[in-house]
């Protein structure tokens, strides 16, 4: 299969925070942000694989900063690494200052998607060739994160997670 660069899957979603999407402190609901990130990640996974894709796992979410009502929120989703049928999608969330237009990183997340056929069976996806230093860093650590996710889901024995174990030795 022809390898692809992460930039080929880049997906950018920009939207406002409306009153119906906020908590009592007038900040964006975590669940609303998760849904927006899921949508962006799904498009990135589809762009990489050109197949039907399903969310297999949410591996990491850090709600580092609250996002106030009225904010302009931009989510950037890009594949960091693919395996056989699964793809790790990295998401960076930015909020835009109304006056200066400068962007501040608010949150980040990592989702795993799997490409499937019309019957829901996993199918192979193209490999990823990172181009930038950040893409390479995310690519290099993706196998450890996959192993951790599989161990937590009870789909891999900790003893088999060799790359993950190497972190602690
Ligand atoms: C995701 C799904 C297709 C995996 O199917 P499966 O029968 O477990 O298939 P496999 O065991 O062959 O796993 C397929 C791939 O997913 C990966 N995977 C499965 N669970 C995973 C998890 N929790 N974390 C990371 N990767 C996971 C496997 O490692 C494998 O990757 P690889 O092919 O790149 O090596 C299946 O569980 C599914 O359809 N789940 C529902 C998806 C869905 O509806 N999502 C929306 C939720 S509302």
Automatic annotation (TrEMBL):
Q: Which Pfam families match?
A: 4HBT
Which domain of life does the protein's organism represent?
Answer: Bacteria
Which Gene Ontology terms cover its molecular function? long-chain fatty acyl-CoA hydrolase activity
Which residue intervals define the domain HotDog ACOT-type in the entry?
7-119
UniProt record, GO biological process: acyl-CoA metabolic process; fatty acid catabolic process
**InterPro entries xref list:** Cytosol_ACT, HOTDOG_ACOT, HotDog_dom_sf, Thioestr_dom
Q: Which UniProt keywords apply?
A: Hydrolase
What the record says about family reads: Belongs to the acyl coenzyme A hydrolase family.
The UniProt entry, under PANTHER family, shows: ACYL COENZYME A THIOESTER HYDROLASE, CYTOSOLIC ACYL COENZYME A THIOESTER HYDROLASE
The protein here is known as Acyl-CoA thioesterase
Say which species the protein is native to. Flavobacterium magnum
